[in-house]
């Protein structure tokens, strides 16, 4: 039997690792580390650093090239095929590096429950009959780091929060009956599609938990344009960007 742990590692700060994550890593025989292309090499460096710090000397680190998602065609179908390809890749790696079973680990950005596919991919491994037992070690999410950095509560008193993507906000607009929306995976400026930006506040953060962390907050109509310029500048300087924001209807 292969014991596969999906370990949430937080969002860029090695100190985000929980004691449960550290203990699970210390017991791992194999850690699979994805290479996601040049732009994400900073993120791979963090994973390497975590392994150096917390893995036992006998553990094996296996770096692999993550399959990429097709950009053209039906989005849902492309995602399904991409997950199939990653499942196949993990299956091969686990068969090669854990032939007698053992403890394997994957380091998952933030937490595996939030806009992450690893649990959907491990379901494929289980369905394919791989002798595998999957566990999750929860991690600190980018949403938590955003609210902590701005020192704000996520929800208004007794009120719901909607978590969505930039694409959904652009295509579907503001959800009915909701006053707070957290937006992730925005390729840039989905908030500019909202009518009446003076009716919203925004709390924005990029590279949260990392030395480059950058924050902006204010009334949306006042900071929308400077925020877009700032984001573009950061993206040009760093070569990549990851950002998240919380929007709240005023009053
Ligand atoms: C594929 S999702 C992964 C989310 C992750 N599982 C989590 O728990 O936060 C990637 C998105 O998370 C957000 N994100 C992750 N890390 C971030 C960081 N360090 N700073 C800002 N946003 C981040 C961004 O919205 C990014 O587009």
From TrEMBL:
The entry's keywords: Cobalamin biosynthesis, Methyltransferase, S-adenosyl-L-methionine, Transferase
Pathway note: Cofactor biosynthesis; adenosylcobalamin biosynthesis
CDD domains: Precorrin-6A-synthase
Domain Tetrapyrrole methylase: 4-222
Gene Ontology molecular-function annotations: precorrin-6A synthase (deacetylating) activity
Domain of life of the source: Bacteria
GO biological process terms held by the UniProt record: cobalamin biosynthetic process; methylation
Name of a matching Pfam family: TP_methylase
Alphabetized PANTHER family for the sequence: COBALT-PRECORRIN-2 C(20)-METHYLTRANSFERASE, PRECORRIN-6A SYNTHASE [DEACETYLATING]
The name this protein goes by in its record: Precorrin-6A synthase (Deacetylating)
């Amino acid at each position: 039997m292969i014991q596969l742990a999906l370990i949430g590692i937080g969002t860029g700060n090695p100190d985000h690792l929980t004691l449960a994550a550290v203990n699970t890593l210390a017991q791992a025989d194999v850690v699979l580390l994805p290479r996601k292309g040049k732009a994400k090499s900073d993120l791979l460096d963090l994973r390497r650093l975590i392994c150096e710090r917390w893995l036992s000397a006998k553990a094996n680190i296996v770096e692999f090239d993550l399959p990429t998602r097709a950009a053209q065609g039906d989005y849902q179908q492309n995602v399904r095929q991409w997950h199939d390809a990653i499942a196949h890749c993990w299956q091969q790696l686990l068969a090669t590096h854990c032939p007698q079973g053992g403890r394997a680990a994957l380091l998952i950005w933030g937490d595996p429950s939030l806009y992450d596919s690893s649990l959907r991919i491990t379901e494929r491994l289980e369905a394919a009959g791989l002798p595998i037992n999957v566990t999750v070690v929860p991690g600190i999410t980018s949403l938590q780091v955003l609210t902590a950095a701005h020192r704000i509560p996520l929800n208004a008193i007794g009120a719901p929060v909607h978590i969505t993507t930039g694409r959904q906000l652009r295509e579907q607009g503001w959800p009915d009956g909701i006053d707070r929306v957290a937006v992730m995976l925005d390729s840039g400026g989905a908030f500019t599609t909202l009518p009446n930006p003076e009716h919203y506040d925004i709390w924005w953060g990029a590279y949260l938990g990392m030395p480059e962390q950058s924050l902006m907050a204010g009334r949306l109509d006042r900071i929308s344009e400077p925020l877009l310029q700032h984001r573009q500048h950061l993206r040009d300087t760093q070569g990549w960007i990851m950002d998240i924001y919380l929007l709240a209807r005023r009053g």
